[in-house]
Design goal:
Distance between the termini: 78 Å
Helix content: 10-25%
CATH topology of the largest domain: Lipocalin
Structural class: alpha+beta
Number of domains: 2
Shape: elongated
Low-confidence stretches: 25-30
Strand order of the largest sheet: 1-2-3-4-5-6-7-8
CATH architecture of the largest domain: Beta Barrel
């Protein structure tokens, strides 16, 4: 009798553990998707795409305004932030790198409550945060 009760308790715990693991994996699988898509800085002078490739997240420029700086125009269709990893503990993309004129800049991207992204760039002791908002863009749109 005790053995049956013990087996039943063990089975209930195993089922509970399996259910918890399944829910956790499901949440982890969909959470990073909130970063994917098209984003623009608040000034609206460029549109960036966050995409997933080779188990990492990357950012490339897909559109720039006509009055954009020459450096921005030269970055069109080029990946400029690379190797971001999703951190479930922080709920953000971390440890990315951005190479500008032979300087390596660290990059993190987090989702703000308003639905915008906070992009934080760090080089040595210098740190800058930029807000990106969702952008309406389709790949058939005219590029400058």
């Amino acid at each position: 009798m005790k053995e049956m009760i013990l087996k039943e308790v063990i089975m209930k715990r195993v089922v509970l553990i399996v259910m918890l693991i399944s829910v956790a994996l499901n949440l982890l699988g969909t959470e990073p998707a909130k970063f994917l898509g098209y984003w623009q800085p608040e000034d609206g002078k460029a549109i960036y795409e966050i995409f997933f490739q080779d188990n990492l997240y990357h950012v490339k420029t897909v559109w720039v305004a006509e009055d954009a700086k020459e450096r921005q125009k030269n970055s069109l269709d080029k990946t400029f932030i690379q190797d971001l990893e999703y951190s479930p503990a922080k709920g953000e993309l971390i440890a990315g790198r951005m190479n500008i004129e032979k300087r390596k800049i660290k990059c993190n991207i987090e989702r703000e409550k308003a639905g915008n992204l906070k992009v934080t760039l760090k080089a040595g002791i210098m740190k800058r945060s930029i807000s990106w908002i969702p952008a309406k863009y389709e790949s058939s749109d005219v590029k400058n």
